Amino acid sequence: MVVSEKLRQEGLLKYTDSLPFPALVLDSEFNVIFVNRKGMETFEKAQSGGKCYELTHGIDRPCWEVFGESVCPLKKLMERKDPYAYHEHSGGEFHLLVASRIDEDLYLEFFLDSYISDIIRQLRFLADIDSLTGFYNRRKIEEILRNEIERARRYGDPLSVIFVDIDNFKQINDTYGHRKGDEVLRKVADLIRRELRKTDFVGRFGGEEFVIILPETEPERAVRVAERIRERIEREDFGVGEVTISAGVTGLKGEDDYGSLFVRMDRAMYLAKRKGKNRVETL
To answer: Where is each GGDEF domain found (predicted)?
Structure first.
């Protein structure tokens, strides 16, 4: 490919090559003048140059003749229309493109679909995660629990839950400050994580409360998991004196729905509190 000296002089070549999404420099005849680094990774025929539609769609005639005029932002830009395009293919794949004019004969075309998809995935992930502990947040763990109840019902599998509350956590915050309290929360979360399987789910339900979902697990085994968590936390040095937890365990029963299962695990946890804390109770 011949790279325009104008691109080099104005630093546009370096700029285009640094973009985190595929970008092409094209002339007014739709010839590919330059493909940036991300474009070279994305398009199989990037080395061959040629027409942009050959490179990006693998077809031998203009894409607007195949998919319609709305799919080409460069053509729309030349016709003084809004220089962006969005279209979907089968299987949910989509393309989002934007064009920009460099001068009378040179254009930039940006392919934002994979970049936007990555951002959407990241935003969805961040929307589900508690930033302090890295666990699911309350909304997401409630959604997972509802789904797991439905799945357990469908396949006849056991399902158990553990409701964990850090004992006297307000006292830790009042005595040592909220920054130290956050350190305790992170450390408790890490200790919980070490006792769980990859197939288990855990979320931060409230300030110092955690919900653990154990698919395909009978309550008896869930009690053993809760005891291991309790013992591990009791042994740990948090630098704030003794830190303990109270845990309530229950399993899916009879005609349970989310509400009845939650009420029972909540009651089990508060039973552990009433019996002196630093213990596991089951209902």
So the answer is: 157-283
